[in-house]
Specification:
Elements (H helix, E strand, L loop, with lengths): L2 H30 L1 H27 L4 H47 L2 H10 L1 H7 L1 H12 L2 H27 L1 H11 L2 H42 L5 H12 L5 H16 L1 H26 L8 H37 L32
Length: 371
């Protein structure tokens, strides 16, 4: 083997080692900063969702970008505050009633009375609880000890929310400069493609966030109505849990149905059957009417892509990953359609065959015979 071949082999080995080291460093960086990266991704999704409203307000009413951004964010906060007030007022009322009734329910459960006590008696759980009361008391004492951990988690959550809001505000405010810089750096041939990708990404994110939120609100409201009509206690709390779980793709509606159905059966068998029938009918309506009408126009993904995206996102980022999996998959699909291989791109409209296309200056028909 010649010296040139040895140098080429050594160069390829160094390139491979460098790529492996660079990948390891990138993965270590992502792992070390995963919380901040999650905040940035969430802020980017909200920024993309709110940017069209800011652009429309700036072009029609307010000329200054900062004022338009501030007005849109204030309007979003007002809407969230109104929704939170509508939800939290009955929720706090239910929590207060639950706190008042908790000692009585606990005494009835220990004595085998009431719906919960009868359920514990039938399943044998009451005997187990009485036989292992000391162990359960020790577990409860251990759960009360890490109060500092809980407090730290609350502080980190509040800090994350504030950081996400500030990042989203700055992203929307600086969006024209960022977009202009990217388009200026791109060539003339790439500029229009980047605009198409940006429009598709904005439409995907906005459509998914607003559509998924609307579907969850509808699910929670209907659940509250059904639970209230059947007399199930703490209907507001249960309906809120159902609405939150319904935000999770694929399995959220099923989790909400399990929670509400369990509460219905604890109240009475009749209420449990009515709640089951409601969720069976509602899930059919949601899957075949609400989701196609609200989501399919914004995010066109097949079920396999949705399932794989949600599983991978849950493994990487937990519940937050499940919420953002579908719009992220839609963004990847938009990028593949524009920059991927030709099989990912939509087929151009069919052109008429040259043989079937009439020529100018001669009517279509059989060719004249030569004499």
């Amino acid at each position: 083997m010649s010296n040139a071949d040895d140098r080429a082999t050594a160069r390829r080995a160094l390139i491979v080692i460098g790529l492996v080291l660079a990948t390891a460093l990138a993965l270590a960086f992502v792992y070390a900063t995963h919380r901040v990266l999650i905040w940035i991704v969430v802020a980017a999704f909200f920024a993309v969702a709110l940017k069209p409203a800011v652009d429309r307000l700036q072009s029609r009413f307010v000329r200054r970008r900062a004022a338009a951004t501030l007005l849109v964010f204030l309007a979003a906060f007002v809407v969230l505050a109104v929704v939170a007030t509508v939800i939290l007022v009955p929720l706090l009322d239910d929590v207060g009633r639950f706190a008042d009734r908790a000692p009585e329910m606990l005494r009835d459960a220990r004595a085998g009375r009431g719906p919960l006590g009868q359920l514990l008696e039938r399943t044998g759980a009451r005997r187990y609880l009485s036989d292992h009361s000391e162990e359960l008391r020790d577990v409860g004492t251990g759960l009360r000890q890490p109060a500092v951990v809980v407090l730290r988690g609350i502080v980190e959550t509040i800090a994350g929310l504030v950081t996400v809001v500030v990042l989203a505000y700055l992203m929307v405010l600086e969006a024209p400069r960022i977009t202009g810089g990217v388009l200026a750096a791109a060539g003339d041939g790439e500029r229009e493609r980047l605009r198409r990708v940006g429009r598709q990404v904005s439409r995907t994110v906005t459509g998914y966030l607003t559509g998924n939120l609307l579907i969850s609100v509808i699910c929670g409201a209907l659940t509250f109505v059904v639970l209230s009509l059947t007399g199930v206690p703490f209907a507001g709390v249960i309906a809120l849990l159902v609405a939150v779980t319904d935000l999770i793709p694929l399995v959220g509606a099923t989790l909400g149905a399990v929670i509400a159905t369990g509460a219905g059966f604890l109240h009475s068998p009749t209420a449990g059957v009515i709640v089951i029938v409601f969720f069976v009918v509602y899930q059919q309506v949601e899957n075949h009417l609400l989701q196609p009408l609200i989501l399919s126009r914004a995010v066109r993904l097949n079920p396999l892509t949705v399932l794989v995206s949600v599983l991978l996102a849950v493994q990487l980022a937990g519940l937050l990953g499940a919420l953002l999996a579908i719009p992220a998959a839609g963004i990847v699909q938009a990028l593949l359609c524009e920059y991927g291989p030709s099989r990912f791109r939509p087929a151009p409209p069919a052109e008429p065959d040259d043989a079937a296309r009439p020529r100018r200056g001669r009517p279509a028909g059989p060719a004249p015979q030569e004499g």
